[in-house]
Structure to design on (374 residues):
């Protein structure tokens, strides 16, 4: 600031002496000229540096970085020029307010730059390590970077204005405890969300079982978002179900794709007791072989599971490479087994009952004989 004042004073000395009000106008004009010339030079330097280091991946991917740098330089020049002009009118309160305003204005480019840096580090560092702790740290930073920067800027601005921020911070802590008791369910979901991010029982894109699906709709779907409060799952009916994280942590999680996309599908089939079991098994295996997506290794298998009340219960077990075709597999094979059984005369039994109707005839009572006297 002293350097700027000395430079303006030298420029003003070159001008002819004028009345006081014109001197103020001269200073304003000189400050604006110096501001614009300096800004022009800085922009050219930034452009030159940008062309020189564009070969680096971070710069190529995040072209907005230099836009943030130019914005920060503009705010610093504005701070210097504004402070000088305010000093000329001798209004210390206005200067303090101006400084606080610049601090708040700087918060946005700083927040944007921090988010870009965290995203780059998450891509280059966190995803290449086996530990999951760095994943949760980067994810939390990316989610709360804006809050951290803006809260810090507000505290610094209040301190610049002369407010004692320590009672404010202490009061915020007490208020935080009270809010924590009032919003314990929300905090429980947040903690559960952090545990989900650390433990990773499922990832975005995994297919899991959904226990809270509407009645009569699909009961499984793909995870589309894992938030700190809730997880979003899109079912195969294209319904998005938002489940609180705390509820997820209290239930068993059935994940069909966490290890691989390959799963085994079981299809229950019943045949009559007088049917040829081996013939039925052969027909079932032939039908399973017609499904192109059914794996040949391990091969399909048919086992006898149980002797039911009216049927011999068989079960076909096949492996498929895509877990998302589970229902397609069941529907395809079941339809064709029914047609093949009908063609070969193999009965698919259903419960039968023989009903006997017994009719009882009630005769009238016999009439008593009268007239004879003993």
């Amino acid at each position: 600031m002293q350097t700027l004042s000395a430079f303006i004073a030298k420029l003003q000395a070159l001008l002819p002496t004028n009345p006081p009000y014109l001197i103020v106008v001269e200073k304003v004009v000189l400050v604006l000229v110096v501001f614009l010339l300096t800004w022009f030079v800085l922009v050219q330097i930034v452009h030159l540096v940008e062309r020189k280091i564009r070969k680096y991946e971070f710069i190529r991917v995040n072209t907005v970085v230099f836009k943030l740098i130019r914005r920060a330089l503009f705010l610093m020049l504005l701070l210097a020029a504004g402070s000088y002009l305010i000093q000329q009118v001798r209004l210390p309160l206005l200067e303090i307010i101006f400084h606080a305003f610049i601090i708040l204005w700087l918060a946005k480019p700083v927040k944007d730059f921090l988010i870009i840096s965290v995203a780059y580090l998450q891509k280059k560092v966190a995803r290449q390590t086996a530990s999951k702790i760095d994943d949760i740290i980067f994810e939390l930073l990316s989610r709360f970077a804006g809050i951290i920067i803006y809260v810090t800027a507000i505290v610094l601005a209040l301190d610049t204005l002369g407010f004692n921020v320590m009672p404010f911070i202490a009061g915020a802590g007490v208020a935080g405890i009270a809010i924590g008791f009032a919003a314990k369910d929300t905090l429980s979901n947040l903690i559960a969300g952090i545990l989900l991010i650390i433990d990773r029982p499922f990832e975005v894109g995994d297919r899991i079982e959904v226990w809270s699906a509407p009645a009569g709709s699909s009961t499984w779907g793909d995870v589309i978002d894992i938030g700190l409060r809730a997880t979003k799952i899109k079912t195969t009916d294209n319904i998005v179900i938002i489940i609180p994280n705390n509820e997820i942590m209290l239930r068993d999680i059935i994940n069909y794709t966490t290890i691989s996309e390959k799963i085994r599908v079981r299809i229950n089939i019943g045949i009559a007791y007088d049917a040829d079991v081996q013939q039925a098994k052969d027909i079932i295996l032939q039908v399973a072989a017609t499904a192109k997506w059914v794996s040949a290794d391990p091969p399909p298998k048919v086992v006898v599971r149980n002797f039911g009340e009216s049927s011999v219960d068989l079960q076909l077990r096949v492996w498929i490479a895509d877990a998302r075709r589970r229902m397609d597999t069941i529907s395809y094979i079941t339809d064709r087994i029914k047609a093949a059984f009908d063609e070969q005369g193999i009965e698919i039994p259903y419960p039968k009952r023989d009903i006997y109707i017994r009719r009882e005839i009630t005769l009238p009572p016999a009439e008593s004989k009268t007239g004879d006297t003993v």
User: Anything to note?
Assistant: The chain has three domains: 2-177, 192-249, 263-344.
